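Here is one chain, start to finish.
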Amino acid sequence: MEFYGSLGFLVPNFEEWQKSKVPFFSIFFGNNKLNFHAPEMWQNSEFTLRGPTSLPGCGDLCFVWQGGSAALHELLEAAHAAIIAGPFDLHGAQGPGTSVYVRDPDDNLLEFIIYDEAPTGKSIRIEDVL
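Its structure:
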């Protein structure tokens, strides 16, 4: 959770969450929320509100970044999140954008896409990074 806090997410106090006995916790990023499931949830065969083949620590998340590429690079550097791919131009859910990819401490892939800046002129086929 420290990693996500360093990226600007609002994260719960871990000790308080453990005491609460709630089997998941949520972190917030603007109007977005990510739920993390504790082992008692993903080990329960009756819990089906998740990807059918998901395993703990897996994920592929995309966040729209509105602070400009310089601020994003500064934030990622401060969070010790090395850019593993990008920046390059992609077509995202809101149209053309520029994306960079990092991994969190659990090796989940995080994409940050910027829609409000000029294209970099660098492109890549998604098939090349999958």
